[in-house]
Structures are given as C-alpha cells and as structure tokens.
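Private note to self, pasted from the team thread so I don't lose it. Backbone tokens:
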C-alpha cells in the first residue's frame, strides 16, 4: 500500500531537485528514498523502475523547456527571435542543470509525448528561421547547429570551461549574431 502523502508528483519533484543539485546520474532509487524519508521499495508502488522515473524527469524538462522557449519568442522573428531563443535556452539549461541533462539523454523506450515535444521545438526553430528564406534541408541543418551551439555553451559553462573575463551570454549572442549575418549574406 502506498505511503500516505507520497505520490508520483512528489517523487518526480524530489528527483528533479536531486538531478539539479547532483546530476541526473545521481538520481537513484536509494538517493530518492533517502531524500523522501521512505524505504526504497515504497517508490515501486508508484513507478516500475528508475528508468521510468528518469523518463518522467525528461518529459517534465522537455515540456518546461518548450513552454519557456515558446513564451520567450512570441511575437518575435528573425535575428531577434534567434537571439532570444538562444538566451532562454542557455538560461534554462544553467538554471535547471539536471532537468536539462535529462532532456538530452536518449530515451530507452519510444514515448509519444517526448517525440511530439521534440517535433514542436524543431518546428519552432524552423519557424524562427523562416525569415531567412532557407530550403527545408538548410533549416534542419541549422536547427542542429543552433542546438549544438547553445548546448556547447551551456556544457562548457557548467563545467567551468569559460575562464576568460567575458560574459558567457554575451559570447553566445555574438556567435548567434554572426550566424544570422552569414544567413543574411548568403541569401
């Protein structure tokens, strides 16, 4: 019988907090049980496995990232939209490191919600790139490139890889501006 007051949402919230503080790999049944002050078997009344818990963390992260990005670029287009997208993506990754880390892990089993959210984010970026009059394949290459740029900045920043006395966000935005200038020049 499940413990009174313990439910899936509380477990996921605790898992997200643990992931943000310690990293997604530190989210274990034992660590979660300790944080929730329950015995490890109690968690299995709500989730079949640690994989299921981590998958739920990824779903939460993807949904929050998608919501953040959609809200932030509403009403914007072109360079302004891409700069806002990059800035908000970086901020999300840095403010929610474990949650973000979960979103980039490959899913062990296909999930319709994850696939839909991923498609929505790709579609959002393609829409933001539409003002540059790109062919579909060019836009898809750029979606990968933009994600790689922002992920790279976030990963390096969290790992302490930026030691120079320059603001990391300013460097990211400068890089995105150069990309936009190149797109304008090409067309």
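Design output:
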């Amino acid at each position: 019988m499940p413990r009174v007051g313990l439910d899936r949402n509380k477990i996921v919230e605790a898992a997200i907090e643990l992931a943000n503080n310690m990293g997604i790999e530190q989210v274990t049944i034992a660590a979660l049980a300790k944080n929730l002050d329950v015995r490890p078997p109690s968690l299995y009344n709500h989730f079949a496995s640690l994989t299921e818990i981590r998958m739920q963390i990824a779903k939460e992260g993807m949904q929050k990232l998608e919501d953040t990005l959609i809200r932030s670029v509403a009403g914007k287009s072109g360079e302004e939209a891409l700069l806002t997208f990059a800035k908000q993506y970086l901020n999300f990754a840095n403010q929610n490191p474990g949650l973000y880390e979960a979103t980039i892990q490959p899913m062990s089993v296909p999930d319709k919600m994850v696939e839909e959210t991923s498609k929505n984010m790709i579609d959002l970026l393609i829409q933001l790139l539409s003002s540059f009059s790109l062919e579909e394949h060019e836009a898809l290459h750029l979606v990968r490139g933009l994600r790689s740029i922002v992920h790279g900045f976030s990963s390096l920043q969290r790992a302490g890889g930026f030691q120079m006395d320059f603001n990391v966000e300013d460097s990211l935005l400068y890089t995105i501006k150069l990309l936009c200038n190149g797109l304008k020049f090409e067309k």
